[in-house]
Protein backbone atom coordinates (compact mmCIF):
# COMPACT_ATOMS: atom_id res chain seq x y z
CA UNK A 1 0.00 0.00 0.00
CA UNK A 2 1.19 3.56 -0.76
CA UNK A 3 2.47 5.41 2.29
CA UNK A 4 -0.05 8.28 2.01
CA UNK A 5 -3.26 6.21 1.98
CA UNK A 6 -1.69 4.00 4.66
CA UNK A 7 -0.96 7.01 6.90
CA UNK A 8 -4.49 8.35 6.30
CA UNK A 9 -6.05 4.98 7.14
CA UNK A 10 -4.02 4.73 10.34
CA UNK A 11 -5.09 8.28 11.31
CA UNK A 12 -8.73 7.43 10.51
CA UNK A 13 -8.62 4.29 12.63
CA UNK A 14 -6.98 6.13 15.57
CA UNK A 15 -9.57 8.89 15.28
CA UNK A 16 -12.39 6.33 15.30
CA UNK A 17 -10.91 4.54 18.32
CA UNK A 18 -10.71 7.86 20.15
CA UNK A 19 -14.38 8.69 19.43
CA UNK A 20 -15.60 5.17 20.09
CA UNK A 21 -13.73 4.80 23.40
CA UNK A 22 -15.21 8.08 24.58
CA UNK A 23 -18.73 7.39 23.27
CA UNK A 24 -18.90 3.86 24.69
CA UNK A 25 -17.89 5.10 28.14
CA UNK A 26 -20.30 8.02 27.93
CA UNK A 27 -23.32 6.03 26.73
CA UNK A 28 -22.68 3.24 29.20
CA UNK A 29 -22.82 5.69 32.10
CA UNK A 30 -25.65 7.77 30.63
CA UNK A 31 -27.98 4.95 29.63
CA UNK A 32 -27.04 1.70 31.27
CA UNK A 33 -26.63 3.07 34.76
CA UNK A 34 -28.92 6.10 34.94
CA UNK A 35 -30.49 5.71 38.40
CA UNK A 36 -29.17 7.43 41.52
CA UNK A 37 -27.47 4.93 43.80
CA UNK A 38 -28.45 4.41 47.40
CA UNK A 39 -25.39 5.87 49.11
CA UNK A 40 -26.65 5.07 52.58
CA UNK A 41 -26.55 1.39 51.78
CA UNK A 42 -23.44 1.41 49.61
CA UNK A 43 -21.24 3.41 51.96
CA UNK A 44 -23.00 2.80 55.26
CA UNK A 45 -23.38 6.58 55.27
CA UNK A 46 -24.94 8.51 58.13
CA UNK A 47 -23.79 11.97 57.14
CA UNK A 48 -22.87 13.92 54.01
CA UNK A 49 -21.13 17.26 53.80
CA UNK A 50 -22.20 19.40 50.85
CA UNK A 51 -20.51 22.71 50.12
CA UNK A 52 -22.71 25.13 48.21
CA UNK A 53 -25.71 23.19 49.51
CA UNK A 54 -27.85 26.29 49.92
CA UNK A 55 -28.91 26.50 46.27
CA UNK A 56 -28.76 24.98 42.79
CA UNK A 57 -26.94 21.67 42.34
CA UNK A 58 -25.86 21.48 46.00
CA UNK A 59 -29.39 21.95 47.30
CA UNK A 60 -30.74 19.33 44.87
CA UNK A 61 -28.01 16.98 46.06
CA UNK A 62 -28.98 17.56 49.73
CA UNK A 63 -32.60 16.88 48.84
CA UNK A 64 -31.86 13.48 47.29
CA UNK A 65 -29.42 12.52 50.06
CA UNK A 66 -32.06 13.32 52.69
CA UNK A 67 -34.59 11.24 50.76
CA UNK A 68 -32.14 8.32 51.06
CA UNK A 69 -32.08 8.71 54.84
CA UNK A 70 -28.75 10.53 55.05
CA UNK A 71 -28.21 13.56 57.31
CA UNK A 72 -26.58 16.58 55.69
CA UNK A 73 -24.13 19.22 56.82
CA UNK A 74 -24.38 22.22 54.52
CA UNK A 75 -21.55 24.70 54.08
CA UNK A 76 -22.38 27.84 52.10
CA UNK A 77 -22.21 31.60 52.22
CA UNK A 78 -23.45 33.20 55.39
CA UNK A 79 -26.53 34.77 53.84
CA UNK A 80 -30.35 34.42 54.21
CA UNK A 81 -30.40 31.69 51.53
CA UNK A 82 -28.61 29.13 53.69
CA UNK A 83 -31.14 29.58 56.53
CA UNK A 84 -34.07 29.47 54.16
CA UNK A 85 -32.88 26.33 52.32
CA UNK A 86 -32.09 24.53 55.58
CA UNK A 87 -35.53 25.41 56.93
CA UNK A 88 -37.23 24.05 53.80
CA UNK A 89 -35.21 20.82 53.90
CA UNK A 90 -36.01 20.33 57.59
CA UNK A 91 -39.71 20.81 56.85
CA UNK A 92 -39.57 18.27 54.01
CA UNK A 93 -37.47 15.74 55.95
CA UNK A 94 -38.39 16.14 59.65
CA UNK A 95 -36.59 12.88 60.56
CA UNK A 96 -33.25 13.99 59.16
CA UNK A 97 -30.62 15.95 61.04
CA UNK A 98 -29.83 18.93 58.80
CA UNK A 99 -27.15 21.34 59.92
CA UNK A 100 -25.76 24.40 58.23
CA UNK A 101 -22.63 26.47 58.55
CA UNK A 102 -22.46 29.90 56.93
CA UNK A 103 -18.90 30.85 56.04
CA UNK A 104 -16.96 32.55 53.28
CA UNK A 105 -15.13 29.76 51.47
CA UNK A 106 -13.20 32.50 49.71
CA UNK A 107 -11.35 33.50 52.88
CA UNK A 108 -7.76 33.22 51.75
CA UNK A 109 -6.55 32.43 55.25
CA UNK A 110 -8.76 29.37 55.24
CA UNK A 111 -10.49 30.52 58.44
CA UNK A 112 -13.58 28.51 57.49
CA UNK A 113 -11.73 25.21 57.89
CA UNK A 114 -11.36 25.38 61.67
CA UNK A 115 -15.10 26.08 61.95
CA UNK A 116 -15.92 23.11 59.73
CA UNK A 117 -13.45 20.96 61.64
CA UNK A 118 -14.94 21.91 65.02
CA UNK A 119 -18.59 21.57 64.06
CA UNK A 120 -18.18 18.20 62.33
CA UNK A 121 -15.85 16.68 64.94
CA UNK A 122 -18.45 14.29 66.30
CA UNK A 123 -20.19 13.50 63.02
CA UNK A 124 -19.38 10.37 61.03
CA UNK A 125 -19.21 11.97 57.58
CA UNK A 126 -18.53 9.49 54.76
CA UNK A 127 -19.81 11.51 51.80
CA UNK A 128 -18.09 14.77 50.90
CA UNK A 129 -19.31 16.86 47.97
CA UNK A 130 -17.09 19.80 47.07
CA UNK A 131 -19.64 21.69 45.05
CA UNK A 132 -19.49 25.40 45.99
CA UNK A 133 -18.24 27.63 43.22
CA UNK A 134 -18.98 30.62 41.10
CA UNK A 135 -18.00 32.25 37.85
CA UNK A 136 -16.49 35.69 37.74
CA UNK A 137 -17.06 37.32 34.39
CA UNK A 138 -14.49 39.82 33.14
CA UNK A 139 -11.06 40.20 31.63
CA UNK A 140 -8.38 39.00 34.03
CA UNK A 141 -6.05 42.03 33.81
CA UNK A 142 -9.00 44.41 34.32
CA UNK A 143 -10.21 42.64 37.46
CA UNK A 144 -8.70 43.25 40.92
CA UNK A 145 -6.28 40.46 41.75
CA UNK A 146 -7.99 39.92 45.12
CA UNK A 147 -11.23 39.10 43.34
CA UNK A 148 -9.44 36.48 41.25
CA UNK A 149 -7.82 34.97 44.33
CA UNK A 150 -11.16 34.87 46.15
CA UNK A 151 -12.57 32.98 43.16
CA UNK A 152 -9.65 30.56 43.34
CA UNK A 153 -10.11 29.96 47.06
CA UNK A 154 -13.83 29.17 46.66
CA UNK A 155 -13.52 27.05 43.52
CA UNK A 156 -10.29 25.21 44.30
CA UNK A 157 -8.39 25.82 47.53
CA UNK A 158 -11.36 25.35 49.87
CA UNK A 159 -12.05 21.99 48.19
CA UNK A 160 -8.44 20.96 48.78
CA UNK A 161 -8.49 21.91 52.47
CA UNK A 162 -11.86 20.21 53.03
CA UNK A 163 -10.86 17.09 51.09
CA UNK A 164 -7.60 16.81 53.01
CA UNK A 165 -9.42 16.99 56.34
CA UNK A 166 -12.14 14.48 55.51
CA UNK A 167 -10.00 12.07 53.48
CA UNK A 168 -7.72 11.74 56.53
CA UNK A 169 -10.66 11.21 58.85
CA UNK A 170 -12.00 8.48 56.54
CA UNK A 171 -8.59 6.82 56.25
CA UNK A 172 -8.04 6.98 60.02
CA UNK A 173 -11.41 5.34 60.63
CA UNK A 174 -10.72 2.85 57.83
CA UNK A 175 -14.16 3.46 56.33
CA UNK A 176 -15.54 3.62 52.81
CA UNK A 177 -16.58 6.95 51.42
CA UNK A 178 -17.13 9.31 48.52
CA UNK A 179 -15.35 12.52 47.59
CA UNK A 180 -17.13 14.45 44.87
CA UNK A 181 -16.10 17.55 42.95
CA UNK A 182 -18.32 19.75 40.79
CA UNK A 183 -16.10 20.85 37.94
CA UNK A 184 -17.32 22.18 34.60
CA UNK A 185 -17.02 21.63 30.87
CA UNK A 186 -15.19 24.99 30.88
CA UNK A 187 -12.14 23.08 32.07
CA UNK A 188 -11.44 21.62 28.61
CA UNK A 189 -11.44 24.77 26.55
CA UNK A 190 -9.97 28.27 26.70
CA UNK A 191 -12.31 30.50 28.70
CA UNK A 192 -11.50 34.09 27.81
CA UNK A 193 -13.67 36.50 29.82
CA UNK A 194 -13.80 34.04 32.73
CA UNK A 195 -10.21 32.83 32.79
CA UNK A 196 -10.24 32.01 36.50
CA UNK A 197 -13.31 29.83 36.13
CA UNK A 198 -11.92 27.54 33.42
CA UNK A 199 -8.55 27.35 35.15
CA UNK A 200 -9.93 26.53 38.60
CA UNK A 201 -12.19 23.85 37.15
CA UNK A 202 -9.28 22.35 35.17
CA UNK A 203 -7.37 22.06 38.45
CA UNK A 204 -10.29 20.28 40.11
CA UNK A 205 -10.65 17.77 37.30
CA UNK A 206 -6.98 16.91 37.16
CA UNK A 207 -6.63 16.74 40.92
CA UNK A 208 -9.67 14.48 41.20
CA UNK A 209 -8.36 12.00 38.64
CA UNK A 210 -5.07 11.62 40.53
CA UNK A 211 -6.67 11.50 43.97
CA UNK A 212 -9.09 8.84 42.72
CA UNK A 213 -6.21 6.45 42.13
CA UNK A 214 -4.57 7.23 45.47
CA UNK A 215 -7.61 6.51 47.62
CA UNK A 216 -9.50 3.82 45.68
CA UNK A 217 -7.56 0.95 47.35
CA UNK A 218 -8.80 2.28 50.71
CA UNK A 219 -12.43 2.14 49.60
CA UNK A 220 -12.86 5.84 48.84
CA UNK A 221 -14.46 6.66 45.51
CA UNK A 222 -13.71 9.99 43.86
CA UNK A 223 -16.05 11.50 41.30
CA UNK A 224 -15.67 14.66 39.28
CA UNK A 225 -18.65 15.85 37.27
CA UNK A 226 -18.64 18.23 34.31
CA UNK A 227 -22.14 19.67 34.10
CA UNK A 228 -23.43 21.44 31.02
CA UNK A 229 -25.39 24.68 31.71
CA UNK A 230 -27.62 24.33 34.77
CA UNK A 231 -30.52 26.51 35.75
CA UNK A 232 -29.38 28.08 39.03
CA UNK A 233 -28.17 31.28 40.70
CA UNK A 234 -24.91 30.70 38.85
CA UNK A 235 -26.24 33.04 36.16
CA UNK A 236 -27.22 35.81 38.56
CA UNK A 237 -24.26 38.01 37.62
CA UNK A 238 -23.39 37.47 33.95
CA UNK A 239 -22.91 41.18 33.21
CA UNK A 240 -25.39 40.80 30.34
CA UNK A 241 -23.01 38.74 28.25
CA UNK A 242 -24.60 37.17 25.18
CA UNK A 243 -22.67 33.88 25.46
CA UNK A 244 -23.78 33.39 29.07
CA UNK A 245 -27.37 34.28 28.25
CA UNK A 246 -27.34 31.76 25.39
CA UNK A 247 -25.98 29.08 27.73
CA UNK A 248 -28.65 29.85 30.29
CA UNK A 249 -31.38 29.31 27.69
CA UNK A 250 -30.27 25.68 27.24
CA UNK A 251 -29.83 24.97 30.96
CA UNK A 252 -31.19 21.81 32.58
CA UNK A 253 -32.51 21.57 36.14
CA UNK A 254 -30.18 21.29 39.12
CA UNK A 255 -31.98 18.07 40.03
CA UNK A 256 -30.87 16.50 36.72
CA UNK A 257 -27.24 17.14 37.60
CA UNK A 258 -27.65 15.97 41.20
CA UNK A 259 -29.15 12.70 39.93
CA UNK A 260 -26.30 12.37 37.47
CA UNK A 261 -23.80 12.75 40.32
CA UNK A 262 -25.53 10.15 42.45
CA UNK A 263 -25.87 7.67 39.62
CA UNK A 264 -22.17 7.96 38.77
CA UNK A 265 -20.63 7.68 42.24
CA UNK A 266 -18.49 4.57 42.47
CA UNK A 267 -19.06 3.73 38.83
CA UNK A 268 -16.73 6.16 37.13
CA UNK A 269 -14.22 8.85 38.07
CA UNK A 270 -15.18 11.42 35.43
CA UNK A 271 -18.79 12.06 34.55
CA UNK A 272 -19.63 14.27 31.57
CA UNK A 273 -23.16 15.57 31.87
CA UNK A 274 -25.20 17.07 29.04
CA UNK A 275 -24.83 18.25 25.48
CA UNK A 276 -22.26 21.01 26.01
CA UNK A 277 -19.72 18.84 27.79
CA UNK A 278 -20.04 15.97 25.35
CA UNK A 279 -19.89 18.39 22.40
CA UNK A 280 -16.73 20.05 23.79
CA UNK A 281 -15.09 16.66 24.37
CA UNK A 282 -15.86 15.39 20.89
CA UNK A 283 -14.81 18.68 19.32
CA UNK A 284 -11.45 18.49 21.07
CA UNK A 285 -10.91 15.07 19.53
CA UNK A 286 -11.09 16.71 16.11
CA UNK A 287 -9.69 20.15 16.83
CA UNK A 288 -6.61 19.92 19.00
CA UNK A 289 -6.39 22.22 22.02
CA UNK A 290 -3.17 23.76 20.65
CA UNK A 291 -5.06 24.89 17.55
CA UNK A 292 -8.17 25.79 19.54
CA UNK A 293 -6.10 28.11 21.75
CA UNK A 294 -4.70 29.88 18.67
CA UNK A 295 -8.17 30.27 17.19
CA UNK A 296 -9.51 31.67 20.48
CA UNK A 297 -6.64 34.13 20.75
CA UNK A 298 -6.93 35.25 17.14
CA UNK A 299 -10.72 35.46 17.10
CA UNK A 300 -11.54 37.08 20.44
CA UNK A 301 -11.66 40.55 18.86
CA UNK A 302 -14.69 39.44 16.85
CA UNK A 303 -16.75 38.82 19.98
CA UNK A 304 -19.08 41.63 20.99
CA UNK A 305 -18.84 40.42 24.59
CA UNK A 306 -15.12 41.10 24.60
CA UNK A 307 -15.52 44.73 23.64
CA UNK A 308 -18.25 45.18 26.17
CA UNK A 309 -15.94 44.03 28.96
CA UNK A 310 -12.72 45.65 27.86
CA UNK A 311 -11.64 48.52 30.07
CA UNK A 312 -11.36 51.92 28.33
CA UNK A 313 -7.69 52.55 29.08
CA UNK A 314 -7.13 54.23 25.73
CA UNK A 315 -10.53 55.06 24.17
CA UNK A 316 -9.05 56.07 20.80
CA UNK A 317 -7.17 52.83 20.44
CA UNK A 318 -10.18 50.83 21.54
CA UNK A 319 -12.34 52.61 18.95
CA UNK A 320 -9.75 51.83 16.24
CA UNK A 321 -9.63 48.17 17.23
CA UNK A 322 -13.40 47.92 17.32
CA UNK A 323 -13.62 49.38 13.83
CA UNK A 324 -11.01 46.93 12.62
CA UNK A 325 -12.95 44.08 14.17
CA UNK A 326 -16.17 45.30 12.50
CA UNK A 327 -14.54 45.37 9.08
CA UNK A 328 -13.05 41.93 9.64
CA UNK A 329 -16.39 40.55 10.68
CA UNK A 330 -18.07 42.14 7.69
CA UNK A 331 -15.52 40.56 5.36
CA UNK A 332 -15.93 37.18 6.98
CA UNK A 333 -19.70 37.19 6.57
CA UNK A 334 -19.36 38.58 3.07
CA UNK A 335 -16.92 35.83 2.12
CA UNK A 336 -19.18 33.18 3.64
CA UNK A 337 -22.14 34.72 1.72
CA UNK A 338 -24.30 34.67 4.81
CA UNK A 339 -27.44 36.82 4.30
CA UNK A 340 -27.70 39.74 6.67
CA UNK A 341 -30.84 38.52 8.46
CA UNK A 342 -28.98 35.40 9.53
CA UNK A 343 -25.90 37.38 10.41
CA UNK A 344 -27.98 39.79 12.42
CA UNK A 345 -29.57 37.07 14.55
CA UNK A 346 -26.26 35.24 15.02
CA UNK A 347 -24.53 38.46 15.93
CA UNK A 348 -27.20 39.41 18.41
CA UNK A 349 -27.06 35.90 19.80
CA UNK A 350 -23.38 36.21 20.56
CA UNK A 351 -23.53 39.50 22.31
CA UNK A 352 -23.62 42.27 19.76
CA UNK A 353 -26.79 43.56 21.36
CA UNK A 354 -24.90 44.14 24.57
CA UNK A 355 -22.24 46.07 22.77
CA UNK A 356 -24.72 48.19 20.86
CA UNK A 357 -26.31 49.23 24.12
CA UNK A 358 -22.99 50.63 25.25
CA UNK A 359 -21.34 52.30 22.36
CA UNK A 360 -20.73 51.08 18.87
CA UNK A 361 -18.38 52.21 16.19
CA UNK A 362 -20.63 50.83 13.47
CA UNK A 363 -24.38 50.44 13.96
CA UNK A 364 -25.82 47.10 12.82
CA UNK A 365 -27.61 48.93 9.98
CA UNK A 366 -24.29 50.32 8.79
CA UNK A 367 -22.74 46.87 8.91
CA UNK A 368 -25.72 45.57 6.95
CA UNK A 369 -25.26 48.17 4.26
CA UNK A 370 -21.56 47.37 4.05
CA UNK A 371 -22.38 43.70 3.58
CA UNK A 372 -24.89 44.43 0.87
N1 LIG B 1 -24.92 26.45 36.69
C1 LIG B 1 -24.12 26.02 35.74
O1 LIG B 1 -24.38 26.22 34.53
C2 LIG B 1 -22.90 25.23 36.09
C3 LIG B 1 -22.24 24.52 35.06
C4 LIG B 1 -21.09 23.80 35.37
C5 LIG B 1 -20.63 23.77 36.67
N2 LIG B 1 -21.27 24.47 37.66
C6 LIG B 1 -20.72 24.41 39.01
O2 LIG B 1 -21.69 23.84 39.88
C7 LIG B 1 -21.43 24.28 41.21
C8 LIG B 1 -22.74 24.69 41.84
O3 LIG B 1 -23.22 25.83 41.14
P1 LIG B 1 -24.77 26.08 40.90
O4 LIG B 1 -25.03 26.06 39.45
O5 LIG B 1 -25.58 25.20 41.76
O6 LIG B 1 -24.85 27.61 41.34
P2 LIG B 1 -25.46 28.30 42.65
O7 LIG B 1 -26.91 28.04 42.72
O8 LIG B 1 -25.01 29.71 42.58
O9 LIG B 1 -24.75 27.57 43.86
C9 LIG B 1 -23.45 27.90 44.28
C10 LIG B 1 -23.29 27.52 45.73
O10 LIG B 1 -21.96 27.87 46.16
C11 LIG B 1 -22.07 28.71 47.31
N3 LIG B 1 -21.00 29.71 47.37
C12 LIG B 1 -20.65 30.59 46.41
N4 LIG B 1 -19.67 31.40 46.87
C13 LIG B 1 -19.42 31.01 48.12
C14 LIG B 1 -18.54 31.46 49.14
N5 LIG B 1 -17.72 32.50 48.95
N6 LIG B 1 -18.55 30.84 50.33
C15 LIG B 1 -19.39 29.81 50.57
N7 LIG B 1 -20.25 29.36 49.66
C16 LIG B 1 -20.27 29.93 48.46
C17 LIG B 1 -23.39 29.42 47.13
O11 LIG B 1 -23.84 29.98 48.34
P3 LIG B 1 -25.02 31.12 48.27
O12 LIG B 1 -26.20 30.42 47.67
O13 LIG B 1 -25.25 31.52 49.63
O14 LIG B 1 -24.49 32.18 47.35
C18 LIG B 1 -24.26 28.28 46.61
O15 LIG B 1 -24.68 27.47 47.67
C19 LIG B 1 -20.39 25.39 41.11
O16 LIG B 1 -19.14 24.88 41.48
C20 LIG B 1 -20.40 25.75 39.64
O17 LIG B 1 -19.17 26.23 39.23
C21 LIG B 1 -22.40 25.18 37.39
TrEMBL record:
InterPro entries given in the database record: NAD(P)-bd_dom_sf, Sc_DH/Rdtase_CS, SDR_fam, VLCFA-Steroid_DH
Family annotation (SUPFAM superfamilies): NAD(P)-binding Rossmann-fold domains (SSF51735)
Compartments (UniProt record): Endoplasmic reticulum
Signal peptide interval: none
Cellular component terms per the entry's GO annotation: endoplasmic reticulum
Swiss-Prot/TrEMBL keywords: Oxidoreductase
Record-level Gene Ontology MF annotations: oxidoreductase activity
Pfam families per the UniProt record, alphabetical: adh_short
Coarse class of the protein's main subcellular location: endoplasmic reticulum
Protein name: NAD(P)-binding protein
Protein's organism: Rhodosorus marinus
Organismal lineage: Eukaryota, Rhodophyta, Stylonematophyceae, Stylonematales, Stylonemataceae
